[in-house]
Write a structure and sequence with these properties.
Blueprint lengths: L5 E2 L2 E3 L2 E3 L4 E4 L7 E5 L4 H20 L2 H30 L3 H20 L8 E3 L5 E9 L2 E5 L7 H12 L3 E5 L5 H14 L6 E3 L4 H9 L3 E7 L2 H13 L3 E5 L4 E5 L5 H13 L9 E7 H17 L18 H17 L1 E4 L16 E4 L16 E7 L2 H8 L7 E5 L3 H10 L4 E4 L19 E2 L13 E9 L11
Parallel strand pairs: 1-5, 8-9, 8-11, 9-10, 11-12, 13-14, 13-18, 14-17, 16-17, 18-19
Antiparallel strand pairs: 2-3, 4-5, 6-7, 7-21, 12-20, 15-16
Length: about 500
């Protein structure tokens, strides 16, 4: 894709910095050296916070429509570079090019939506209890905010956090995942090209140390984190101890319910898309198919056929339908759960590493049948192309099984019965529910997020996303310049 290795550098203020000494290899073929990135330190994060704090007064005073105009310029730059970004994303993270293009498009659409919020940062007025007093509210930015983002959506997630933070008047320190620095570097270059003032957006690479520095610095007023539930609990606890606003989007164990009147071809196709798309590396991936007993055999036959039809391979090659796991560590996790599943349930297809691609991190698409709701593979997030089929006797049991895990991000139900569909929609413990559609997906103008152990704080995306990054201020204006005599406490 390029003649020489790429290099990522920290973006701190108006400067690129840091020694790019950490090699980045393709997860599809580890013989391919893609580039280098800095490992990052607490000192790098502190320097980025210094730059963000210095830029904050000027950015707060920039009229919100002008802030939105810079986001619209970034949209146009992303649209022009979308194909190149998608190919780099596919090469570095491993998702196939059509999925990578979809991610870039999602990022563009959300920035476009958030930029429009520059003219919708509305407070309100209401009658005061006091004579001669005009009462109203408006919104102020929180200040410097920290964004800590994962590797599985390295374009979309940083940008859908960054856009509402910027439009509300905050300055940003982003710490992306260490697995995907090169595509982040490309986004950083476009942010500079769009004309954001120095220090408004700062990016520091690395792993845990710069993230800790961002969380613990008292100048950082809010943290938005997406990642594992285990790490998210630590982030939540630390922010709570520091009295710092926190928003976490964490794990999922998403159910796809197939009722006995469902279109089985449609259900199986949606299930396969949710379970095996992006190599199962989505918080919205379908990991449990909860199927009524009367149609379970037919459903399993269909989903097994679709699993066998998946074509793993290098994500830049035509005809490939599934890329690799992102890293050796993630592949080990998937393979370990495959072995657990073989002990707990009936292996239908897969359950191994893909033998034909020895230089990449490829797990085979895997289906287990006769899974119990108490099995580990039915309760723990795997983040790989592993599907557990759980058989149930009724709608009531299907809902109970679906709700019987700690997570609650998204779910789906397949049925032709409108009444049963609404019953599941009302009772499923998820932030997002799909009817006759796969578990993944979301649109810019609707909230995204879950409940239970999946989420902490307000939802992301949607018309209110900027509110997490803002503080409401109430003003009482005594316009008669007369002493208050009653009604004030």
């Amino acid at each position: 894709m390029q003649s020489s290795p790429l290099r990522a550098r920290h973006l701190i203020g108006d400067s690129w910095s840091g020694d790019a000494d950490m090699p980045i290899h393709s997860p599809a073929d580890t013989r391919e050296l893609l580039g280098y990135a800095p490992s990052g330190s607490r000192a790098d994060a502190t320097a980025a916070i210094d730059a963000a704090a210095a830029a904050l007064p000027g950015w707060m005073e920039t009229p919100a429509p002008k802030r939105g105009a810079l986001l619209f310029k970034l949209v146009r730059l992303l649209e022009a570079a979308a194909d190149d970004i998608a190919r780099l994303l596919a090469w570095e993270e491993g998702k196939i090019v059509p999925e990578a293009r979809g991610e870039v498009e999602k990022a563009i659409r959300y920035i476009e939506f958030a930029a429009g919020d520059a003219r919708r940062l509305q407070g309100y007025t209401a009658p005061s209890e006091l004579n001669g007093t005009f009462a109203f509210t408006f919104w102020r930015p929180k200040g410097v905010v920290g964004l800590i983002t994962p590797w599985n959506f390295p374009v979309a997630i940083p940008l859908w956090k960054m856009a509402p933070a910027l439009v509300a008047g905050n300055t940003v320190v982003l710490k992306p995942a260490p697995e995907t620095p090169l595509v982040t570097q490309r986004i950083a270059e476009l942010i500079r090209e769009a004309g954001f003032p120095p220090g408004v957006v700062n990016i520091v690479y690395g792993d845990a140390e710069p993230a800790r520095a961002i969380i613990e610095d008292p100048r950082v007023k809010a943290i938005s984190f997406t990642g594992s539930t285990e790490v998210g609990r630590q982030v939540e606890a630390r922010c709570g101890a520091l009295h710092k606003a926190v928003q976490c989007e964490l794990g999922g164990k998403n159910p796809l319910i197939v009722l006995d009147d469902a279109d089985l071809d449609l259900a199986a196709a949606g299930c396969a898309q949710g379970a095996f798309g992006s190599t199962g590396q989505r918080c919205t991936a379908t990991s449990r198919a909860i199927v009524m007993e009367g149609v379970a055999d037919a459903f399993v036959e269909r989903i097994a056929t679709l699993a066998r039809a998946v074509r793993p391979g290098h994500p830049l090659k035509e005809g490939v339908t599934m890329g690799p796991s992102v890293s050796a560590r993630q592949l080990r996790t998937v393979l370990e759960y495959q072995e657990v599943g073989k002990e707990e349930a009936k292996l239908v297809v897969g359950g191994v590493r893909w033998a034909d691609l020895p230089h990449g991190y490829f797990p085979a698409p895997t289906v287990f049948d006769q899974v119990s709701p108490t099995h580990r593979i039915a309760r723990e997030e795997i983040f790989g192309p592993v599907l557990s089929v759980i058989r149930v006797a009724s709608v009531e049991e299907a809902i109970a099984v679906a709700n019987g895990v700690e997570f609650g991000l998204t779910g789906a139900v397949y049925t032709r019965d409108l009444g049963r569909a609404f019953e599941v929609v009302q009772r499923l413990d998820t932030g997002i529910t799909q009817v006759n559609a796969p578990t993944m997906g979301g649109e810019a103008h609707f909230p995204f997020g879950g409940c239970k152990a999946t989420a902490v704080g307000p939802k992301e995306m949607g018309p209110d996303a900027w509110r997490f990054f803002s503080e409401p201020k109430t003003v009482y204006m005594n316009h008669r310049l007369a002493p208050r005599t009653a009604g004030f406490y």
